[in-house]
Amino acid sequence: MALTGLQIYKLLPASSTKPEVKAHANCKECGYPTCLAFAMKLAAKQAELSLCPYVEEESKRQLEESAAPPIRLITIAGSAKKLEVGNELVLYRHEKTFYHPPGLFVRVKDTQPDAAQVAEAVAAYSVDYVGMSLTLDGVAVEAAGGDFASTVAAVKAACPFPLILMTSDPATAEAGLKAAQGTMPLLWAADAQNWQAMAKLAAQYKVPLVVLANGDLNALADLAEQVKNAGVEDIVLDPGTRGYADSLAIFTQLRRLALKKNERKVGYPLIAFAGDDATLAAQHIAKYAGFIVLDRFDPAMVYPLIVLRANLFTDPQKPIQVLPGVYEINKPGPSDPLMITTNFSITYFSVANEVESSGLPGWLLVADAEGMSVLTAWAAGKFDAERIAKTVKTTGIEQKINHKRLIIPGHVAVLLGEIEEELPGWEINVGPREAVDLPNYLKTRWG
Amino acid sequence: MPGIEVPKEKWSGKVREVTLGATAAEGGTRSRTVTVGGETTLPFLKFEGEIPHPPAIALEVRDQQPNDWPSILLEAWNGATQDVAEWAKAAEAAGADLVALRFNASEQLNAAYARKILRRVLSATGLPLIVFGAGQADLDNEILVAVAEEGKGERLVLGVCEEKNYRTIVAAALAHGHLVDARTPMDVNLSKQLTILIHDMGMPLERIITDPTTGALGYGIEYGYSVMERLRIAALQGDTMTQQPMLVTPGEEAWRTKEARAAEGVPAAWGDYVERAINWEVLTASTLIQSGADIVVLRHPKSLQRVRAMINALMS
Ligand code: B12
Ligand code: SF4
Q1: Where in the sequence is the domain holding A304, given as residue range(s)?
Q2: Which residues have CB under 8 Å from B117's CB, separation 6+?
């Protein structure tokens, strides 16, 4: 938890009990007139502690610890892609925002002959959502009695994403870590029996380590502490729960402990196993997982999960927007249709994607509606006749086309008369309500 | 080492309990009633509070088979969509807690017709009913007043009451012992304000359900999610006008999306059409339940099964 300026002041030379340290009090070497002024700047995160050469070691430790994020940022990496999770600051997204979307992993077993093909499919999977290309994050390879090392090697070759190595046997783990060399996998897991050997491996191979307990908060915290004391800093917690109710309870408790109680022992990201249940995976996206492992790769399940994750991890203060202006779709000519929409990303892409995939050329005008959807903007007075007319007049579209016909969204049909008044000489057409029906409308009604 | 204490919030508020439907003993004809609300903590956190009732699932039926539902959705009902009474029976058989009857905007829609349809649905199913108008203010006032009278004593939920159009519906519900669905566009203050306005007309708070509106997965769900979370937190903190149980319509929102409607001409990454479409409805609903929904109105019977499985697991 961040310290206040006065708490920091108590740790600076001016407050020291050692005369030789106190002698430097208010020496200004840090660039600030007094230790107190420096403390205030530190509290406001506008200065670096290293500017003062005289801070005692113990104070330094305390200050660094207090500056550390309540949930540690964990990085893992594959041969060409890395993933960062943790560093979350709130329980509810409306309090600020959620920062690091949980990584979505697909599990394969080392007894599975098609492990490498699955890994390849995971790597190849990408879906376009409002202009963003969204992907999965990696593959979890589980030791199930097959040849772990060669499966890890094959998966690593097939997929540039980070891996999770799943085994409780240290010798198997080491074989997997060797096979994964050159990447930074997550090692699952250290439990009450094997933690010493696993911690040693994690330290030696410099990989983050999952600490696994069986549903017990205290057992989990103690084990994490032991692993940390054994020299592993990058820890991920697996509370061992696999169902809905038990997971929701303990994931919530762990997040609260880290954020509200500043409980360092559990200040780490969490890993969840959702089996092949999309609804359970969705719970983990909303409620606090940092890594989510699925047992199956099925696009019909992965796509909605990836979209849900994108939705819940957008910053509530900034709706995703596109720039207002003229957008050309499929190389339109001067006589091609002209349509208008708003600059809310979801709205823009619903319309643009429809027209684009229909192959029909068209001009799409995007009004500055402050990032709101058609009806929201209309209700808020940000997409009215005046703004629509202004968009037509100020974007230079009139020089690019040889007609004066404009298609408006069906949902704002009520604006028809007013737009006609604002744009004399123009013919205003009311388009369909939903963008899906736009290609058919253009084919049958334009010309 | 000193043990870690389970971090519990000390909430002072409680969501109001609202009962839908009335049995013969209570002046209606329903075979059972459904009570929602009563929570003293956030969804399913039973380690710190009470969750006395599971969220309820309503299935939507229409007076006539709608012409804008995708065929996979209609087919899931095996022909029952042809007749409202059959459809209501099928919804009960599919495991619904509630039937949400919604009228299509059509030529024949008037007070007499609405009465007839209501009678048919009431005799086809013993479940409590929610009755939604066709979304046209004047028409809805006319038919909902008739429905309120015809269904006297049944503790129907009548909706939707919006800021622009609530007085007539509330008055009818008040006169005939019904409940109302108070819908506002995703805003904590507007929701509170509409509850106050309706309560000021004399409607007891035990007969108001709040409908904060939602968007579908991929089309604004995050706004609905956060508004519901904020409303629920406000309720638990003791803000009495936010303590109504919440109803949302994820079925309606999800089945409007391209993901649920387009079988062809979409990227292969979207996956199998039927499975994706159902997942779209299920994840929209399940996510809203995680943020506090007490009643979800769904459309596909399979979605009901999956959402039910989740609720059962969370309540166990
Ligand atoms: C998410 C949302 C919000 C979000 C904002 C999201 C955003 N960035 O815009 C928030 C919570 C902030 C919000 C606020 C408000 N909202 Co609002 N909101 C919604 C909601 C749930 C979804 C809107 C959405 O994103 N749709 C998805 C996009 C893609 O749809 P779309 O832009 O319409 O685009 C589609 C079509 O129009 C078409 N299309 C688009 N462009 C074009 C162009 C052409 C040429 C054609 C042919 C077609 C076409 O294609 C798209 C896909 O089919 C709707 C209700 C609902 N379920 O629809 C209410 C809704 C739009 N909101 C409404 C209202 C009233 C408001 C507020 C005014 C409430 C208030 N008083 O505070 C505020 C206004 C905001 C402000 N003052 O700051 C009302 C509008 C009612 C009305 N008809 O007048 C609605 C309908 C809810 C309701 N039933 O009451 N809202
Ligand atoms: S460098 Fe700044 S903070 Fe450090 S002792 Fe001198 S005045 Fe105080």
Answers
A1: 74-312
A2: B63, B84, B101, B103
